[in-house]
Model the fold of this input.
Amino acid sequence: MAATDPDGGLFRCDLPAPTGPHPVGTVDLHLVDTRRSDPWAEDDSRPRELMITVWYPARRNAEAPATPYATPGLGPAFDTFAGSLGIPAGSVDWTGIGTHTTVGAPVAHAARRLPVVLYTPGRLNPRFLDTTVAAELASHGYAVVAVDHTYESLAVEFPGGRVITPAPALAGELSPQVMKAAVDCRVADLRFVLNQLRLLARGGNPDADGRTLPAGLGAALDIGSVGVFGHSLGGTAAAEAMRLDRGISAGAVLEGPLGYGPDDPELFAPVTRTGLRQPFLLAGSSYTPELPFTHTHVAAWQALWKNSPGWKRDLWTARARHQSYCDFQILVPALAARFGTPPPAVVAAMVGDIDPVSGTDARRAYLTAFFDRTLKHRRRPLLDNPTPHLPDVTRID
Done:
């Protein structure tokens, strides 16, 4: 990861580059679900609108522009977040963080039958906040589709510069009832997006504004091979989407609580009672060094584990923390190194004391191995045996 201060003192850094053989392209799509009103909009007749980003293996194209990390309209929202960490507003170039991807490049000639992986981020997190994993998977031959959950994400910018920030009901602490409604809405979002990808694979253009799509994208999608991963609230949504949609073949839960409130079985998500038949991966860190987020210590995870007869893995990263499962693992330490804030205790509470690059390498390697095994049906010993190259991750049986 490289960090720079260009003219004017604006901070930028580069995310770790993808390790796969393919360059990576991206495209944003504006989707409108005319059959569903938005449960969070002030106008309850307004159809549900989403922005998604697709990462995919691309041809090398020197003329394709670099993909910005964040769209320009998200700057104020990100500055507010940075301000909560003590970083002065306007001091970070959020669009200029290096993504190692390009916009709209044609799909790689060798990219045929790309498995599709959906991503649903943590609460308030925008869709691009795990660009490191999305680009990594795409470089290894996947189409990765990240969803912004409108009125829940920190900010969503639509074509024309319209920006939607969180609904009041979703901005503060969530009651169990609101949390369940948020998960249910996310699951409906994921299933709608999957249906729109089926339209794309049949040769249609699901973009509400009819924008031109990258050459070869629809024909390259393998809609019969679909996975999902989600972080935090997105992890719960990913598991519930797998329960309800057998068109999703595998999924990873990254510190998803699998419930809607305190550790009360009455508030556990339905998937903990029904279990899953599809293969799944649980990945957790530590609330504290003495309290690991694993199926042996978290009751909702234990229930899902016990009730799921198929293949499963539980991976514990002791030195990580909750925000280690997204790009904050890289960004927060880089910001702290540049600005002297947030202080070390806050950095450790957010992303632990794991080396940022090592932690990111582990997250990318294990998720790629998981989807290789479950969607491409390739043997991946990493999922069965520890490796000295990734010493921070422990398999929990």
Observations:
- The chain has eleven helices and 16 strands.
- The chain has one domain: 16-395.
- The two ends are 34 Å apart (CA to CA).
